[in-house]
Amino acid sequence: MVKPNIAAVIGALVADAAALGLHWLYDPTRIATIEVNNSLTFVPPDPNNYTDTKGFFAHANKKSGESSGYGELCLLMLKHIAKHGEFNRIDYQSEYSTYFGPGGAYIGYIDSPTRKTLQTLLPLKPADYPSRSGADDDQFAALATIPVLVAAHQGDVREALIEQVDSVVRITNNNEVAVAAAQCAAVVLFEVLKGASIDRALTESLPYAGSTLKPLLDEALKFNTLDSVGAAERFGSSCHVTEGLPVIFHIAQHAPDYRSAVEANIRASGDSCGRAIMLGAIMASYHTKNRRSDSAIPLAWMARYNKLVSAADACVQLEAE
Predict the structure, then answer these.
(1) Using CB atoms within 10 A as the burial measure, which of 74, 101, 182, 195 is most buried?
(2) Dmax (CA) of the chain
(3) Homologous superfamily of 4-320 in CATH?
């Protein structure tokens, strides 16, 4: 059986890929009309779905099963730690610049935090990279590496993880709200992997959320039933963690399983891929650890994620560390 920490990483990557086809479509009503084989997951990117409605079609060069930039960032960190055995800031910044920079292997939309981070790093030699190379930006790149950091974390010392999250997030998002969101999300996954219920893990994370996010998360946890569209209407569905993290908390609290959570996230519209990384990690790890099903992540979904072999190979190395 897959270990819960590995399920967290694969769950994050698969959830991101599942949401790609309707990513940044800000119209829940339109989304509700779009189904492929009675599902909203792994819908092929199609500009017609974005016609005459609110949305941004960013993935014209991608196919069903590919990752958003968030998924690529998650996978990059996975390969980094698998290769080096631990996080090394300068090596990671160099790998980041090579992969996302001009002439790199990444093909896709470059968001604002990525663009500004590259503007800082590319003119410099690795020895001169600043530790805080990220943009003053609270968008979802801040959460993209968190499943890997938590999955690779050794021991039960929460504060050591929190310090590492701060260092890693500031590479792409040198912003206090972004750091607080990432630390809060990391604690949720950390507690789930230790055996906590999702409700307890969400509550345990609140002291790390900071003054901006905590009231929003408190409110999100007061929803009585799953209503991802309503939660997104209340908190927002764009790329900012102040909008997306409350929606993640809401879905994680109420969704009965991984599949339901991923589909509810897509229905919520907007930056579904940004939310998918942490939501997928939390739900996959929890249901794997508690053996609520034979496979928390549907096998058919894993098969459709087109970098599964690469991710699985890195996970094998990660387990061996």
Answers:
(1) 182
(2) 52
(3) ADP-ribosylation/Crystallin J1 (1.10.4080.10)
